[in-house]
Amino acid sequence: MTTTTRHELQLTATRLSVDYAYAIDTRDWDLFADLFTEDVVVEYTGMPEIRGITQWLDYFIPFHEDCPWTLHKMTNHRSGYGPDGAWAMCYGDVTWLHRRDENRLNHAVNVYRDDLQYDGTTWRIARRRMNIVGSDSADITAAGIHLPASVRSIATDN
């Protein structure tokens, strides 16, 4: 058992979720994989249960590579210790375009709940559950929405 204080755990949990968002939006799959244990269990609304980081990347990368524009915003971070160990949760606000319909801006509001594991060096997410609590989409042309750049293009434009 680590001696991580609640404050340190809160900072770590926030970093994990913010790095998750950044990794997806910039397609930094090495960073993404480093946030999770090798045997991570993933339960997302609308997806089959996934076991292991390799299986998750095999599922996640093709979908996101077909999204020319994504923006993940993670907020309302909470963490603590329970009978089963450390946990974290946050809200996610996700917007994306998919190649199958590049005029449709998709939006989902999610709740992420994580079981965290300390490996002696760093905290990682051992189990992640995501529930969609709201979603919608809009035709960007009809709505007059202009997306001048993606997080990916800005982050790699240094």
From TrEMBL:
Signal peptide per UniProt: none
Coiled coil: none
InterPro entries, A to Z: NTF2-like_dom_sf, SnoaL-like
Stretches assigned to the SnoaL-like domain: 15-129
Protein known as: SnoaL-like domain-containing protein
Organism: Gordonia insulae
